[in-house]
Amino acid sequence: MLFYIENGCPNCRGRISDERLSKGLPCENCLPEENVISSKISNVCEILHTKNSLRDLKVFCEVEKKVGYFKKIFNQILDISPSSLQIGWAKRFFLGESFAIVAPTGTGKTTFGLITSLLTPRKALIIVPTKVLVKQTEEKLNYYLGKIKDKSLKNKIILTYTGSEKEKELLEKGKFDIFVCTSAFMHRNFELLKIIDFSLIFVDDVDSFLKNSKNVDNLFLLLGFSKEEIELALKRDKEEKDYENLLKIKEKHKKKTKQLIISSATLKPKTNRVLLFQNLLGFEITRFVSTLRKVIDTYLPVSLDDKSDKEKVFLKLLEIAEILVKNLKEGGLIFVEENFGKSYVEIATDYLRNKGFKVISYLEADEEELLSALKNRKVDVAIGLCHLGNPLVRGIDIPEVLRYAVFLGVPKHVFPLSKDKEGFSLSISPQFLHSILISIMPLLEEEEKITALSHLNYLKKYLTLKD
């Protein structure tokens, strides 16, 4: 022990030693040394409860109990334990927080969102980008319900909107526990949704949702904020009184027990509506940088005699792709570099088809047909353009089928130049500068990296500014 901290005990706010804090224990008055069995929070909670000395830690003990239940349900559904990331998100959910989950594909964001929707005590709303994902989400939720043993959860009613009047009628009458819809449905039927009391709203793949300012405004109305409160949060040049009022609004909202969870793998906000999340819910939406991926990245250099002949270059890339698909077999996605364009997607499709592979491209099938062909293993590979808006890039959640991705050409982020009187210039917005610095980090020397990190930390505060 080195020192004591006055008012430092997390349970009674009394005096506590640094040693007890480092072990995750309350002070000796709350939990005498002879009663310490383990520093595990569950054990500490149990002893404090038995001794009738559980005070400020009560809320965290309740959360720990709920997290234990979350783990149990998660295991029943998937026969595996949740990851440390998912447990961290669960703790925030049970603490009643609204928050953003920004993490790479495959880290279990959607799975977490669906399970918490089942666990929420009242009605939940799930918003996804497309009708295909509405259907996919409904199938998953019903599968989850079939695996759950708890009777109080098994009887949950899942309602989706696919276009029928009966579905709309059930929605109007509130005969559901979880409603799944697209952002387009929300936009068209907001008057219908706003009369329903949702305790949890989960927006999956929030990027497309954020592009429509009206959608974001409607989302905050659903969460119980007034138009005046939304206008105040968006107000430029706020005065001290405005910030005081926003603080009061946040505190008032906490009592409404409404939560928002949003998820994304490639979050790139380009709207001033991000101020609503910061000023009204207390969390920030910032650009995502991928650092955690259970994926092997590799490349094959291609020898070329003439790099200027676009068709010969692409043909050489296709010859390599043919060898890769032959060895890797089914479960692949092939992405044509955006610079080649859509016509080369057709060339790639015809080439591999003529070589005997079962192929489908995003140009010859809609999203539902693409998903069905992949899911039912009717094709070996699907081909699309290497662009974030491509249906093969977003929302394909079938890890049991997909095993690899091949890029024909180098996948890249493009930083557009703008023309001015002196020639061409690059945008100097904080977002662009932040992105460029991250992109060139691997090329920098150690001392330069330290300087770059300093610049990144500075720019982080201003990512929502346009100029």
TrEMBL record:
Keywords: ATP-binding, Cytoplasm, Isomerase, Metal-binding, Nucleotide-binding, Zinc, Zinc-finger. One of its GO terms (molecular function) is reverse gyrase activity. Pfam families: DEAD, zf_Rg. Transmembrane segments: none annotated. It catalyses: ATP + H2O = ADP + phosphate + H(+). One of its GO terms (biological process) is DNA topological change. It is found in: Cytoplasm. Residues 90-285 form the Helicase ATP-binding domain. One of its GO terms (cellular component) is cytoplasm. This is Reverse gyrase. The keyword Isomerase applies. The keyword Nucleotide-binding applies. SUPFAM superfamilies: P-loop containing nucleoside triphosphate hydrolases. Residues 1-38 form the RG N-terminal-type domain. Its main location: cytoplasm. It comes from Thermodesulfobacterium geofontis.
